[in-house]
Amino acid sequence: MSDARKAVIACGEAAQSAAASLAQAPDEQINQALRAMATLLGRRAPELISANAADMADGAASGLGRGLLDRLRLDGTRIQDMATQIGLLAGAPFPAELTPVRELPGGPSGVLRLAERRVPVGVIGANFEARPNVTVDIASQLLKSRNAGVLRTGGAALRSAAALADRVIAPAVEQAGLDPGAVQLVRSADRAAAVELVRQGSLIPLVILRGSGETTRRLAAEAASCGVRTLAHADGGGVLYLDRAADPALAAELITASLDRLGVCNRLNLLLIDSAAWPELLGPAVDAIRAREVTPLLPPHARPLGHEWALDTGHEASVTVAPADGPAAAAGLANSVTSGLAASIVTADPAAAQEFLSAYRGTGAFWNASTRLLDGFKLRGVPETGINVDHVPGPRGPVTFHDLCLRQYVVTPG
Fold this sequence. Notes:
The protein is 43% helix and 21% strand.
């Protein structure tokens, strides 16, 4: 048995051992663990930053690009933001465990009651990019949904993730009187560990997959062959369409706001401009892009329009700019050439806005707002495990603890 397989199985067994008691934990005990996580993030910040500094140094030496280094970095502000989000999560209400649905004929009294119950999955795995805050985001969502977990991050962030697991997550869970083994971290930088994570269906029946599209698709295919379900958060790239009725100042403001970070999936990736207003709007738009030290890529394009620059090492500071023949055509392009993450229209014309919003099929549709808003915390007030863009029923868009459950129908006598 390979070392990677041994590591994943050991983590899965430990998480499975903790899952039953976690599923029965009272609300307050769960929230106590989350509050302790928030406190320990502040208390242990120097240790976390020190571990992250070693990851950052190695990442820079190995040639990680600007976007990947931006994802990897931890500092005091980011740690405080993490603590704030976890604290708010602790105060978020739990969904009802049992929701009445309807009455059915039958039973001793002639009436049966149908209810829908939320049931924890048990153990959920997660394979994610070298981004330390995701370690805490996913751990907190698993705890709030009463699921144990097995986490695996990219090797570039392993020191940071281990510091978070050992100095924040496990101690907080233990302080709340829960099994500290409920959230496990696979301590292996070997990419084979990611493959093993999606092969252990008897221990880990559901795995959250985040990261580059190709890697995630390969892991999802492997999981399917092993009977393991996945929630894949792979592809991103925000679209902004400037309509002929766009306010140039607002357009520039949203372009600037959408490029505050280059390594995130919901930042501006494709800028579309109404063909009829191309001469008037192109100049201010290009100036706004360049103000962020980002390169606007104008026609003719060497890459497909929807190419996700955030994942292109060495080219992260790029935005594709192209014309579109009106709102419906812009939405159609967003539907066909991008992942369907999020798209926004800038316009003062309500009819144009409605045409665009009605035609777009992605997970987030915006009018005069930045696609950076497509985020679990910004939209729903709690952290997320990622953004699901699959065109299937179930959790779509930012996935939070509300979504990490199984549905069970319960019928009882009236």
